[in-house]
């Protein structure tokens, strides 16, 4: 063994160090509070501790009618003054009415002014000046907090949209408005709030049923292990039962088609052709024609003949595939630690995802507060220009555009760092993809090395090295980090291109013409196919790296040509393996799901008293089913890697050895009997 693809290894280490540096820089400049807390028009956080807004956790909009939708309110800036408040309004009121009744009912003013700018307490100021300077909102409406923002408290009464049981309200400018005018400003809020209520109930269900969910997942793990062990004895039986079942079902279909064809004989209109009756929306019309059933019968006969011919000509390769599946089960039985290696891959990927997400958040919040001129007049030439809130009142803008204000718009900046934030986000995404693919490659190479050590052990299990999984992991890290990083780099580049294409497709969806849409669709399809092909090549290249210790390009080339020389065996083994593993996943997930259904619906008398009281029994049920499928997938992915490794070793064994004493086969006796080769040389004691 020697180090392979050293240059790529050095580049990979440098990139990792640079990625750490990027995270540190983002951490220094970023401020996640910009995501956690809403920001008012002065750039201050609502609810931030040790500030004037510590007890004011909710953002209030002076005129929510100016806001188009909740998406605009959350992601962009609504063109109205925004203020941090301790609670949302719970009544209808207008500044005009409050000012008029100030002398008689001062408590109304005391309530209303908490939604005015801090420090404003002049109810005698003219309405026109207050609205111009936006000292107070022209109106307040009953609201409730959502995402720490005040939204109208919508409800439906007898099919009519209302706010606090009212269908109309005063807009504070002398007009009566219908509450439907608020709909666009808070579209879909009720449904989301209802979803929040459902979410709380789901959380409660998880809180009281997590123990039983874990038990269900443990049962799924045991069933997965049992299925892998039993494959050594049942792989052939399961496959042939399925094949003959398909042949029997198709045979019944042929008989049924003939029966229908013969039954329609002599019935008026049944001898018409499909061309005679033309296109019909009711498919039953075609079932009254003899020609339809004749066509079905011919198609099914063709399929039946093809399946039977494939079984006749590929029977030996199918037997080899089944033997390799049994051998894979035997190999896992000797190296049981491999079944738990996916946990290592999961932890590595979880670390990558966490680091990427944190870095992305800090990069996205790295900007400084940017303030822009917000003018009431549409023709103000200074509107949307950047401004300084500290010097704004000394400029001519307030004179040329009466009522204009310098308010917080977003976070950004003009420095070199801020200009390249998008590039940094792109680099963050690219290195994330590279690291994730490297973690997957490391797992595949480690498992391949462990299973290859089983195959090339002349006397099994006596010659299997001690701790094969840990030895393989050490070899992969020590000698082949560069090769694994090289394969992961190629895949990451293609995946990044796919991400960019998806981004462009999303951005150009409303403006693109037919040619652009067609071109993007073709590019997305091509790169999807390329990614699938590269994953297949990389997987087999990592197996060859684990076996021979060569560099990535040499291993990929040798693996590709080795597979091409055995292309029929590859196809047969792939489909047989896919079928049996898919069957195993369905059996595990379905079996545990049925058991969980009977348990959570109290249909098992023995455990009826142990069942927790749930809002929705389907919450833990679906969690158990999906979790069981993922658990089975994790175990079976190890099995699939085992079978692929044994297959490449088997092909190499056939090409390099001839079964003689000088070049004995390393394959098992069952594989040797299927091939009908020379007799195995006697194994040394």
Automatic annotation (TrEMBL):
Reaction it catalyzes: choline(out) + n H(+)(in) = choline(in) + n H(+)(out)
UniProt entry keywords in alphabetical sequence: Antiport, Cell membrane, Glycoprotein, Membrane, Transmembrane, Transmembrane helix, Transport
Subcellular location: Cell membrane
GO cellular component: a single term: plasma membrane
Major site of localization recorded for this protein: membrane
Membrane disposition: Multi-pass membrane protein
UniProt entry tagged with the keyword Transcription regulation: no
Transmembrane segments: 7-28, 210-230, 237-255, 293-314, 334-358, 431-458, 479-501, 513-530, 579-600, 621-641
Similarity comment: family membership: Belongs to the CTL (choline transporter-like) family.
Function: Choline transporter. Choline/H+ antiporter.
Protein name listed in UniProt: Choline transporter-like protein
Species whose genome carries this gene: Sclerurus mexicanus (tawny-throated leaftosser)
């Amino acid at each position: 063994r020697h180090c392979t693809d050293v240059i790529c290894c050095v580049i990979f280490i440098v990139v990792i160090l640079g990625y750490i540096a990027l995270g540190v820089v983002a951490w220094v400049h970023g401020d996640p509070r910009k995501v956690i807390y809403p920001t008012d028009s002065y750039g201050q956080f609502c609810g931030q501790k040790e500030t004037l807004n510590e007890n004011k956790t909710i953002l209030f909009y002076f005129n929510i009618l100016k806001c188009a939708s909740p998406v605009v309110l959350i992601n962009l800036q609504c063109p109205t003054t925004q203020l941090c408040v301790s609670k949302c309004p719970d009544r209808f009121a207008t500044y005009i009415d409050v000012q008029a009744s100030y002398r008689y009912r001062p408590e109304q003013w005391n309530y209303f002014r908490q939604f005015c700018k801090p420090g404003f307490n002049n109810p005698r100021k003219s309405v026109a000046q207050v609205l111009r300077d936006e000292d107070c909102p022209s109106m307040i409406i009953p609201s409730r907090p959502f995402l720490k923002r005040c939204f109208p408290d919508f409800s439906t009464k007898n099919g009519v949209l209302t706010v606090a049981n009212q269908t109309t309200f005063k807009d504070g400018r002398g007009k009566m408005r219908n509450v439907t005018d608020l709909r666009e400003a808070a579209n879909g809020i009720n449904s989301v709030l209802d979803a929040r209520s459902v979410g709380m109930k789901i959380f409660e269900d998880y809180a009281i049923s997590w123990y039983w969910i874990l038990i269900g997942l443990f049962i799924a793990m045991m069933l997965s292990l049992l299925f892998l062990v039993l494959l050594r004895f049942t792989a052939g039986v399961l496959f042939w039962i399925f094949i003959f079942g398909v042949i029997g079902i198709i045979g019944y279909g042929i008989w049924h088609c003939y029966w229908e064809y013969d039954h329609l004989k002599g019935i008026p209109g049944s001898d018409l052709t499909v061309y005679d009756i033309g296109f019909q929306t009711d498919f039953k019309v075609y079932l009254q024609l003899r020609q339809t059933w004749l066509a079905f019968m011919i198609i099914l006969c063709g399929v039946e003949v093809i399946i039977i011919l494939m079984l006749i000509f590929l029977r030996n390769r199918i037997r080899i595939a089944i033997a390799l599946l049994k051998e894979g089960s035997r190999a896992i039985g000797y190296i049981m630690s491999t079944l738990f290696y996916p946990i290592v891959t999961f932890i590595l990927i979880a670390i990558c995802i966490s680091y990427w997400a944190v870095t992305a958040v800090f990069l996205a919040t790295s900007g400084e507060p940017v303030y822009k001129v917000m003018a009431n007049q549409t023709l103000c030439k200074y509107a949307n220009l950047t401004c300084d809130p500290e010097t704004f009142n000394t400029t001519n803008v307030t004179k040329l555009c009466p009522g204009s204000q310098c308010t917080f718009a977003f976070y950004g900046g003009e420095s070199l760092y801020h200009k390249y934030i998008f590039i940094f986000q792109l680099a963050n995404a690219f290195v994330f993809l590279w690291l994730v693919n490297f973690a997957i490659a490391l797992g595949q190479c480690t498992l391949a090395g462990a299973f290859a050590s089983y195959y090339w052990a002349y006397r099994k299990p006596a010659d299997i090295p001690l701790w094969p999984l840990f030895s393989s992991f050490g070899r992969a890290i020590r000698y082949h980090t560069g090769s694994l990083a090289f394969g992961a780099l190629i895949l990451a580049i293609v995946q990044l291109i796919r991400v960019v294409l998806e981004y462009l497709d999303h951005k150009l969806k409303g403006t693109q013409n037919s040619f652009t849409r067609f071109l993007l669709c073709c590019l997305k399809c091509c790169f999807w196919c390329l990614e699938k092909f590269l994953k297949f090549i990389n997987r087999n290249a990592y197996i060859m790296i684990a076996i021979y210790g060569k560099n990535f390009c040499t291993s990929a080339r040798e693996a590709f040509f080795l597979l091409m020389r055995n292309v029929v065996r590859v196809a047969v083994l792939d489909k047989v393996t896919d079928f049996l593993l898919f069957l195993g996943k369905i059996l595990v997930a379905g079996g545990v799901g049925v058991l969980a259904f009977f348990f959570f619906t109290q249909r098992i008398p023995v455990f009826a008293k142990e069942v927790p009281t749930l809002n929705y029994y389907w919450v833990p049920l679906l969690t158990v089913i999906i979790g069981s499928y993922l658990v089975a997938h994790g175990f079976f992915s190890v099995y699939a890697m085992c079978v692929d490794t044994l297959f490449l070793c088997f092909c190499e064994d056939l090409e390099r050895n001839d079964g003689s004493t000088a070049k004995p086969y390393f394959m098992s006796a069952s594989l040797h009997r299927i091939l009908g080769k020379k007799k195995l040389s006697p194994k040394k004691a």
